[in-house]
Amino acid sequence: MEISPSRLEAAKALYSIEKGAKIADVLAYPKGLKPADEALFRELVYGSTRQKRLLDYHLASLCQTPFQKLPVEAKIALRLGFYQLLFLDRVPAHAAVHEAVNLAKKGGQVALSGFVNAVLRNAENKKESLLVEGENEIDTLAIRYSHPTWLVKRWEKQFCFERSEGILKADNQPHPVYLHVKPGLEEQVKADLERQHIQLEPTNWPHRTFSLRSHEGGLFSSDSFQKGDWIVQDWTPQAMLECLPLSEGQRVWDLCAAPGGKTVGLAWKLGEKGQVMASDASPERRKKLAENLKRTGLKQVQVYEGEAAKLPPSQKFDLVWVDAPCSGTGVLSRRADLRWKISPESVLEHGSQQRELLEEAQGHLYPKGYLVYSTCSLEREENQEVVQAFLNDHSGYKVVIPPALENHLEILKDQWGLTFLPTADHDGGFLSILQKD
């Protein structure tokens, strides 16, 4: 059976996602793919997952047999084929259809291979005339941009229609890869990566933030990576770090530290005379934290493996950063499968843990110290309402709002902090800085 390695691996990955696997895990499974095959593999997995609702909506109208009742192997073959027909102009239609048919056969659905062929050929003929008509304007928007209607309804109420559509568009695009470079090594890192045919472009803000503009391989085999001169970190957490009121030589606790990007950034910002204590509740995540800290060789970082609640009261810090577990609605481009796993209930399930983490952290601040709360969520219940609940219980704290960034209109300021809306260039999230009396 003629099936390209990228499409076969993509079908396997999508099958695993259907069975509950995380997209980040399945993207690490295939081994030995050539760079071009790996690029197509990632495009197919991310794209078919992001566009799942739109693909299923149109396929339901093109299938004589009810689409949702088809075996999962046939649905995956149809989605992969149809995604290429709709979104990948560089892929010949006959190749997309032919290999989708073979994927159905490979998946044990030989009896449905003719059906897959007929549906996709019909889709190719009708794709320019396909329309989206939901139950109302919000439902139509949700189908068109392949999101759950309940989530789009929430965003439209919170951010308005235009901003919500901007978020939806951002969620369906791959964002640039960003590097955070150790202070003083910017030119050295650029030169090292250029030898690997990797081009970087500096951002105007934050400092020492570079976007990856070309990548022909060799990124993680470069000398500068092995020496810990840079880390991969999205623009948004780097911007949050830039907003923090920190000075060299201070003492900081990174309470939810894994996989370590914030910890490294904090250590670089505080300098060799500073101190960072990093902790995380998950033993598995602490292993990843330890790996990153070992590579970067930061001597001013200490990993605390005990429970946060058992940290002695005498341990005090100038700043404690709580990057709390959340629903993740600000990172749906990167975590493309998450939009199909979250629910209205899941937005509320982290609230008690978020408040408990803030409560544990606040007892370990020096006077005039800062308690920082952040999430990768856009939801008020996980952001503004958590901060407000904390302030209701702790009158000795006030919100400190960083200076407005006039050229970043996607950063919304209110009395509780900053909301970073997702864009084509970066993820979304929330940041609040609370100062103790």
Notable features of this structure?
single chain, about 425 residues, alpha/beta, N-utilizing Substance Protein B Homolog, Chain A, Alpha-Beta Plaits, 4 domains, 9-stranded mixed β-sheet, 4-stranded antiparallel β-sheet, globular
* The number of domains: 4
Instruction: State the share of residues found in helices, binned by percent.
Output: 40-55%
Mean pLDDT, all residues: 95
| CATH level-four homologous superfamily name of the largest domain | Vaccinia Virus protein VP39
- What is the level 1 CATH name of the largest domain? Alpha Beta
Number of helices: 17
Query: Main beta sheet, described?
Result: 9 strands, mixed
The counted number of beta strands is 13
Report the uncertain regions.
Answer: none
- Classification by helices and strands: alpha/beta
Secondary-structure arrangement, i.e. CATH architecture of the largest domain: 3-Layer(aba) Sandwich
| Molecular shape | globular
Write the element-wise H/E pattern from the N-terminal end onward. Answer: HHHHHHHHHHEHEEHEHEHEHEEHEHEEEE
Note the beta-strand portion: 15-25%
Distance between the termini: 70 Å
Using the coordinates shown, work out and report the CATH topology of the largest domain: Rossmann fold
Q: Determine Rg (CA atoms, Å).
A: 24 Å
Structure, briefly:
The chain has helices spanning 5-18, 23-26, 35-50, 52-62, 72-87, 93-106, 113-126, 137-144, 149-159, 161-171, 186-194, 223-226, 235-243, 261-270, 283-296, 351-362, 384-393; strands at residues 178-181, 199-202, 209-214, 230-232, 251-254, 275-279, 301-304, 317-323, 365-375, 397-400, 411-414, 417-420, 429-436. It has 437 residues and is α/β, with parallel strands linked by helices.
